Amino acid sequence: IERGRRRIAFIGTANDGAPEFLDRHEGWRAAQIEAGLAPDPALVQAASSSEDDGHAATRRLLAGGADFDAIFCVSD
User: Fold this and answer.
1) What is the percent of the chain where pLDDT is above 70?
2) CB 29 within 8 A of CB 40
3) Whole-model pTM above 0.90?
4) Which of 34, 43, 55, 71 is the most interior residue, by most CB within 10 Å?
5) How far is CA 59 from CA 9, 20, 47, 55, in A?
6) Measured distance CA(48)–CA(36) in Å, rounded
7) What is the side-by-side strand order in the sheet with 70-73?
8) Based on the number of CB atoms within 10 Å of its own CB, is 40 exposed (0-12), middle (13-18) or buried (19 or more)?
9) Which 8-state DSSP code applies to residue 24?
10) Sign (positive or negative) of CA dihedral 68, 35, 37, 17
């Protein structure tokens, strides 16, 4: 956000089964709202914390024509 990013995608799991990832999803939302941005649910892609799932989620974002300028992932 400090670098001018306004359309930030989220890749990861955001459910009660992974509370630490749910917290990261809430942080993604809260940071954008605090900056006056509207988190876009269309930029959320579910993925487990594996390299293959993260890659597949990113490919889905790109294939779907999503307009984003940053990605926030729950895990590296």
Assistant:
1) 100
2) no
3) no
4) 43
5) 12, 24, 12, 6
6) 29
7) 44-45, 8-11, 70-73
8) middle
9) H
10) positive
